[in-house]
């Protein structure tokens, strides 16, 4: 178990902690890991409980998930939600094994992606085209 610094108060907290015990600020790194969605989980949920929008709850699409649940409860709505779930299942199959896409749907940006983007931008500003011309 490693210790990390809280982004809010700077106190040492466990990297496994979901929030800082001192100030209550969410441990950003851990929240990202905990919130990371897996494609196979979404697929199984869609397959097993797709008609009640189980996969949509998982992918944080709560509004459409609630609509699916209500429709299924009305019995007649099952005709709509069964087709809806089937369409979602096909969409999921089109993105088979693509965890990055699943996270994008859920509105989660992986930490690794963010870090690589910022470091890439820094490298661009560091490069000196003037120095290269002098070398020639
Ligand atoms: Zn704190």
Quick structural summary:
The chain is mainly α and 136 residues long. It contains eight helices and two strands, in the order ββαααααααα. α2 packs antiparallel against α5 and α4 packs antiparallel against α5.
Structure description:
With 136 residues, this protein is mainly alpha-helical. The chain has a domain at 39-105. It is built from eight helices and two strands, in the order ββαααααααα. It has helices spanning 28-35, 39-49, 54-58, 62-73, 78-94, 99-105, 111-126, 129-135; strands spanning 3-5, 12-14. The chain has a two-stranded antiparallel ribbon with strand order 1-2. A hairpin with a 6-residue loop joins β1 (3-5) and β2 (12-14). α4 (62-73) packs antiparallel against α5 (78-94). The radius of gyration is 22 Å and the shape is elongated. Residues 112-127 have low confidence and may be disordered. Zinc ion is lined by residues 6, 8-9, 11, 20, 22-23, 25. Zinc ion (ZN) binds at residues 6, 8-9, 11, 20, 22-23, 25.
Secondary-structure-derived class? mainly alpha
Main sheet summary: 2 strands, antiparallel
The rough form would be described as: elongated
- As a percent range, the share of strand residues is under 5%
Rounded to an integer, what's the Rg over CA atoms?
Answer: 22 Å
Poorly predicted tracts of residues: 112-127
Strand order of the largest sheet: 1-2
Average per-residue pLDDT, rounded, comes to 81
Distance between the termini: 52 Å
* Order of helical and strand elements: EEHHHHHHHH
Determine the number of helices (DSSP H or I, runs of at least 4 residues). 8
């Amino acid at each position: 178990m490693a210790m990390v610094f809280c982004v809010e108060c700077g106190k040492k907290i466990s990297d496994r902690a979901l929030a800082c015990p001192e100030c209550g600020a969410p441990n950003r790194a851990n929240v990202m890991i905990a919130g990371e969605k897996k494609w196979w989980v979404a697929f199984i949920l869609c397959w097993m409980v797709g008609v009640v929008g189980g996969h949509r709850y998982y992918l944080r699409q709560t509004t459409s998930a609630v609509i699916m649940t209500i429709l299924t409860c009305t019995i007649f709505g099952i005709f709509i939600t069964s087709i809806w779930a089937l369409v979602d299942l096909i969409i999921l199959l089109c993105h088979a094994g693509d965890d990055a896409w699943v996270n994008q749907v859920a509105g989660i940006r992986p930490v690794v992606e963010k870090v690589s983007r910022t470091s890439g931008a820094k490298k661009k500003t560091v490069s000196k085209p003037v120095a290269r011309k002098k070398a020639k």
